[in-house]
Design brief:
This protein is mainly α. Helices cover 48% and strands 9% of the residues. The protein has a domain of 61 residues: lambda repressor-like DNA-binding domains (434 Repressor (Amino-terminal Domain), Orthogonal Bundle). Strands 1-2-3 form a 3-stranded antiparallel β-sheet, with no helix packed on it. The relative contact order is 0.08.
């Protein structure tokens, strides 16, 4: 079995990827080009065998594909109701969950509707507000 080779690399301010030597100094430039001749020469059976041998890249089965259902964000969100259920006024609600206060005002007054990403976030807030708070605290 071939010994695995791990190469440490660093992106330079000039946008180059350079190998990092054991002493931490910058080594040779890594250009990211690959020699595809070996893959091009492989038979389809050999390619399939190689992909099946990789535990991190197993192909999906027909059963797996049947179980996939696209996520559908809610069409409408009652932001004021959600906020009241959490017993929060608009400003603390917006601040706690990283929302723009003027957007919360506009959503509640019906002047604007939350976009798809905001509807997903509001749905998560409605079902698991503590999970959202934990995730946002980790960012800091």
């Amino acid at each position: 079995m071939k010994k695995e080779r791990i190469v440490r690399a660093r992106l330079t301010p000039a946008g180059e990827v350079r190998q990092v030597r054991r002493d931490g100094s910058a080594g040779r430039r890594i250009d990211g080009r690959r020699d595809w001749r070996r893959l091009d020469a492989a038979t389809p059976e050999a390619r399939l065998a190689a992909s099946l041998a990789d535990p991190d890249a197993q192909p999906l089965t027909a059963r797996d594909l049947k179980e996939f259902k696209p996520a559908q964000p809610p069409r409408r969100v009652d932001v004021a109701g959600l906020r009241r259920r959490l017993k929060m006024s608009q400003a603390p609600f917006a601040a706690r969950f990283g929302l723009d206060l003027s957007a919360v005002h506009a959503w509640e007054q019906g002047r604007r509707n939350p976009d798809r990403a905001a509807r997903v976030l509001l749905k998560v807030i409605a079902t698991e507000p503590d999970a959202v708070l934990r995730a946002l605290r980790r960012e800091r």
